[in-house]
Amino acid sequence: MRCFTCNTYVADTWEHFLREEKKKNCRVFFKRHDVKLMCCRRMFLTHAPVVEDIKTYSNVDETVDESNTRFMCRVAVARTASCD
Questions:
Q1: Position 37 in a domain
Q2: Of 16, 32, 72, 84, which residue is least crowded by CB atoms under 10 Å?
Q3: Phi and psi of 2, rounded to 5°?
Q4: Global pTM value
């Protein structure tokens, strides 16, 4: 994982941040791990773990919640483009 703005490599401190996040002591964490730029801090503070949520949707219709909401995941029309 790299910072979107300055391209600094921040993945090496990600696991440490997850452990510290439970303590909610981000200021001390950033000083200890030398994360100085605000754009790099944003990478840690605004991360939203959505992978587990996305994995629940498949390419088959599936009941998602207790109110029997169904999401149609199949593509109804296949579209192709002609290169002629």
A1: yes
A2: 84
A3: -125, 155
A4: 0.57
Residue ranges making up the domain that contains 53: 11-71
44 by Cβ neighbours in 10 Å (0-12 / 13-18 / 19+) ranks as: buried
CATH number at residue 60: 1.10.10
pLDDT in tens, the chain (84 residues): 889 999 999 989 988 888 887 777 888 899 999 999 999 999 988 888 777 776 666 555 555 667 766 665 555 555 666 676
Q: How many structural domains is the chain composed of?
A: 1
Q: Is residue 76 domain-resident?
A: no
3-state SS assignment for residue 7? coil
Q: How far is CA 32 from the centre of its chain?
A: 24
